[in-house]
Amino acid sequence: MENVGRFFILLAVAIAVRMLGRRFVPLVMPESRLKTVVVGMVGGLVGQWLGGRWGIAGIEVAGLYLVWVVAGTAMAVLLLGLAPFIKVFLGKT
Fold it and tell me: Chain centroid to CA 86: how far?
């Protein structure tokens, strides 16, 4: 049952990051909703894993450290949005 809670927390954080990103930095946000949410959820899991490895805790809900989940989600979505700009910068159009 805890895994279901984790899934919905990751989903909610990914959707919230996408909505806030659309509002504040619309140029960088990817167009695809599904891809953005999936990448955000994976980024949240990676952020959670890194936070647990470093031993730095925070607010824990359903076994997830929310600060690390939000940071991982934001970084993953930002990287996905910046990928086309990085390709152009590197000359790989």
Answer: 19
Which tens digit of pLDDT belongs to each residue from 68-80?
A: 888 899 999 999 9
Q: How far is CA 72 from CA 28, 34, 85, 90, in A?
A: 17, 17, 20, 25
CA gap 87, 93 in Å, rounded: 6
Residues comprising the chain, all counted:
93
Please report which residue ranges of the chain form alpha helices under DSSP H.
2-24, 33-54, 66-90
Q: Is the pLDDT of residue 52 over 80?
A: no
**Amino acid sitting at position 28:** V
Structure tokens at 92: 């790989």
What is the reported pTM?
0.84
For residue 60, give the 3-state DSSP assignment.
strand
Could you say which DSSP state residue 29 is in? S
Listed residue (19, 21, 13, 16) closest to 79, CA to CA? 21
